[in-house]
Amino acid sequence: MQPGHSPMGLRARTWLTTHHTLQGSRGGSEMMDVLCVVFLQDLREMEARLRTEKLAAMGRMSAAVAHEIRNPLAAIMQANALLDEELTDPVQRRLSQMVKQNAERLTRITEEVLDIARVRHQIDNVPSSPIALDESVSQIFADWQAQDPQRRRGQFAPDAPKVQVNFDLDHLRRVLVNLMDNALRYMGAHADSLHIRTDVSPDGLASVQVWSDGAPLEKSVEQHLFEPFFSSESRSSGLGLYICRELCSRHGANIRYERTTLALQRGDIEGNAFIVTFRNLLQLPGTPSLFDTIMV
């Protein structure tokens, strides 16, 4: 075992035979036991593959169920809307409103489940393309804020000038909007409760971070953040972060969660940070120089 690494579990299959005959130089023969190791595999790889296969099967089944639910659900919503037009009693109208709200919630969950199949199709068919990181994140953040300026307050700090990353723009928008929506749900009411920033590490890896001053996540929640259908809320389908991870993986990026401290005007504030690190980085051409752009 290498220093700093956890013990590795191995699965080994062996084959033992006692019927191997060796011919001697003087015409004699003797029986010899032979032990052959024919298979050796890291158990962690096997467990990961089995887990992936189970999740894929669960996803296919869930998508099929969601597809069957969608049409009857639409009929329920339409019938309830027609019924609501005829109701005058406040109690009955309140009950009708409850039906509408819960039907809309089921519709959202159904669409998110079906979204997995769409994302899979996009992942297989949409190539990565170079995009300017600071400009792309700035536009996505501005569009997100414009939908609800009173609630969607935050700050954007670009720090990756002239940097391109290989990532589909629509996919990046989807990842960031999901992270910002999650942050909005749990962050405080301060103007600096949400921070978006880009960065380039000393070893040349570009990243974008979505930070908010929400309460820390429980360890049991943190361990399963990016798994499908996992959520700490009963009203959530638990698919948002899973889709983010799938999109990042498709473009050679990774996404992780950290509990970090940010220096703000009101002091050093702890918060939750989701960080997307891009694997492929391109330096945009700036002023003319004697050197060509280098792709890392």
From TrEMBL:
Record-linked SUPFAM superfamilies: ATPase domain of HSP90 chaperone/DNA topoisomerase II/histidine kinase (SSF55874), Homodimeric domain of signal transducing histidine kinase (SSF47384)
Enzyme's top EC category: transferase
Keywords: ATP-binding, Kinase, Nucleotide-binding, Transferase, Two-component regulatory system
EC number(s) recorded for this UniProt protein: 2.7.13.3
Gene3D superfamilies in the cross-refs: 1.10.287.130, Histidine kinase-like ATPase, C-terminal domain (3.30.565.10)
Short name of one Pfam family: HATPase_c
Protein's name according to its UniProt entry: histidine kinase
